[in-house]
Design goal:
By secondary structure, the protein is an alpha/beta fold. The protein is built from 18 helices and 13 strands.
């Protein structure tokens, strides 16, 4: 007896159509999140010309995905990590027919995302004002380095520069008076990634507003704005005191002890968040008198006397092995942690149990494994429907779905538009 297949799982954004003209990281990170939640994301890429085309990150390697023959494919790991669940369409938007094609697609989409320099989309007639005049319900999201207004709006914006301009590097890195001191960027492009996440939230808010009113809007996202917002408590510290915070290495500006310590055989993170946890730590360390010392009883006291307390703790912690500390601290519920490399991260039993990697079938490889989405929704779970697309893999498929005739497709191919 033939079994009836189970019904497909619901998806939060099923039915939402996204036209994605973004490249590299901030925009694709946003659209991958929308795609993971079920949106149909159409990734518009440059056609291949003289060996170059598509999203720049397709060539940002090595490393590249290994093919079935064991050799490198043309699929860079960077691109693979930000473009699953999308369909790729190649369109030359510098060609008038390419611009007309995009405008025809916009009529069937809910969201339009681009990260071109300010003014570029207007040259193609694809700017927010033009498209929203024809389609008032369109949610149009622009992602740039510095936004659509302000004296820097025409500058190109890159994550590294934004981390510097936006203050992050002034508070990241070892103290200037210690070996290795000086400004340091974060190991991943956090301004790009946070901008992508804020853009996702803003787009969802705009879609909710459109649902209620029928009106779309222009979402203006800037990497620098996001970086300034990301300063969080450190930004508030400055605005409250007028004193710019400096670099404190692996320590915390407002909590002590909250930093990396060396053990007899490695390093660990001790993250004491309140006075009770400090007392527990002192019991484990065999120094209960420190918890009763007036200089260290409250966190504010410990911050003021950081330079006295931290060397005392460093000497105690270095006398014992890392795993001894971690076992004892975890049992007492004192926040702590190891410092893992990525091999250790992806082998960690908790990371494995949380299914934070996902295998995907890929046209050119049987070994594609991606970092999974962290969003765990009970009713509309993230679904991994499509591997990151090959360049232009879905051009004809999507255009046929959207009403282009075989004759129209043949003409567009002949003209080099797609």
């Amino acid at each position: 007896m033939t079994q009836t297949p189970p019904p497909p799982l619901p998806q939060s954004l099923a039915g939402v159509r996204v036209l994605d003209l973004s490249r590299v990281l901030a925009g694709p990170w946003c659209t991958q999140t929308l795609a993971d939640l079920g949106a149909d994301v159409l990734k518009i890429e440059r056609p291949l010309r003289d060996g170059a085309g598509g999203d720049d990150t397709r060539g940002w390697g090595p490393p590249f995905l290994k093919g079935r023959d064991g050799d490198d494919t043309a699929e860079a790991a960077y691109f693979l990590g930000t473009n699953r669940n999308k369909r790729s369409i190649t369109v030359d938007i510098a060609h008038p027919e390419g611009q007309a094609l995009i405008r025809r697609l916009v009529a069937q989409c809910d969201v339009f995302i681009e990260n071109f320099k300010v003014g570029d989309m207007a040259r193609y007639g694809l700017d927010a004002a033009s498209l929203r005049a024809a389609h008032p319900g369109l949610v149009y999201c622009s992602i740039t380095g510095f936004g659509q207004t302000g004296p820097y709006r025409e500058r190109a914006g890159y994550d590294y520069a934004i981390q510097g301009i936006g203050g992050l590097m002034s508070v990241t890195g070892e103290r200037d008076d210690l070996p290795g001191g000086g400004p340091q960027k974060v190991g991943v492009a956090v301004a790009d990634l946070f901008t992508g996440m804020y853009a996702t939230v803003a787009i969802l808010a705009a879609l909710r507003h459109r649902e209620a009113t029928g009106e779309g809007q222009h979402v203006d996202m800037a990497l620098l704005d996001t970086q300034v917002a990301m300063l969080a408590n450190l930004g508030s510290n400055y605005l409250t005191t007028g004193v710019p915070p400096g670099r404190v290495g692996n320590a915390h500006q407002n909590i002590v002890p909250y930093q990396v310590f060396e053990t007899s055989d490695g390093h660990l993170i001790l993250a004491v968040g309140n006075d009770g946890q400090f007392a527990k730590f002192c019991d484990i360390a065999g120094c209960p008198e420190l918890a009763a010392d007036p200089r260290f009883i409250r966190n504010a006291d410990r911050v003021r006397h950081r330079d006295t307390l931290v060397p005392l703790l460093a000497g105690l912690i270095k006398a014992r092995a890392k795993q001894d500390w971690l076992t004892a601290l975890e049992a007492a519920k004192v926040p702590c942690g190891a410092i893992n490399n990525l091999e250790e991260v992806f082998a960690d039993p908790h990371v494995v149990a949380r299914e934070m990697t996902v295998p995907m079938a890929h046209p050119r490889s049987d070994t594609l494994r991606l970092v999974a989405s962290p969003m765990k929704l009970s009713g509309t779970p993230v679904q991994y429907r499509r591997p990151p697309p090959l360049l232009g893999e879905h051009t004809d498929e999507v255009l046929r779905e959207r009403g282009w005739t075989p004759q129209e497709l043949a003409a567009l191919h002949q003209q080099g538009v797609i």
